[in-house]
Write a structure and sequence with these properties.
This protein is mainly alpha-helical and about 180 residues long. It has 8 helices and no strands. Helix 3 runs antiparallel to helix 4, helix 4 runs antiparallel to helix 5 and helix 7 packs antiparallel against helix 8. It starts with a helix and ends with a helix.
Length: about 180
């Protein structure tokens, strides 16, 4: 159905109409969620490029498309590309929408998750704390707040486990030296 809507909008409104680009982005996002990454990537890439050209780099709609492409990159295991896109989106959303806007806290959470997955705990913690603080002010009862809390808890648990492992390694090293 989305494909038919996209084709109709292309014919009626043109290839780079904001409505056509919105449908293009939505279809790419649907394919991503369905796991159809090969179908999603060209649509999301085209949406980003066209929205940059038509709406500008800082447009909230352009940032939505960039975030979708970052999520696709993350799904495909291209973490470096995902991180680069998430950081660009985060910088722009902080400036354009503000630090507590739900779209800003969402990308903070996504970037924090990526860094947790890569065991970059010290980098993840401030992002997750910022996401949680924004969600507590703007979306107190939303599920995203609790999700960010759980990610922050995972970060803390990993840091505690790492500290315990280092302590044990130091203790083991001290024992070997004494023996």
């Amino acid at each position: 159905m989305f494909r038919e809507v996209l084709d109709g909008r292309r014919r009626a409104l043109g290839e780079e109409s904001p409505d056509t680009l919105k449908t293009l982005d939505a279809l790419g996002g649907l394919y991503r969620v369905e796991g159809r990454y090969r179908d999603a990537e060209p649509l999301l890439t085209k949406a980003v490029e066209a929205r940059r050209r038509v709406l500008g780099e800082q447009s909230p709609d352009t940032l939505v498309s960039m975030n979708g492409l970052a999520l696709l990159s993350l799904d495909e295991g291209r973490n470096a590309q995902a991180e680069e896109l998430f950081r660009k989106v985060l910088e722009a959303r902080r400036r354009v929408l503000g630090p507590e806007h739900p779209d800003t806290t969402s990308v903070l959470d996504s970037l924090g998750r990526l860094l947790l997955a890569e065991r970059r705990y010290a980098e993840a913690e401030p992002l997750l704390r910022e996401a949680l603080a924004g969600q507590e002010k703007k979306n107190r009862g939303a599920w995203q707040r609790y999700d960010s809390q759980s990610m922050l808890g995972a970060d803390k648990l990993a840091l505690v486990s790492l500290a315990e492992a280092l302590s044990q390694a130091v203790a083991d090293a001290d024992c070997r030296v004494i023996l």
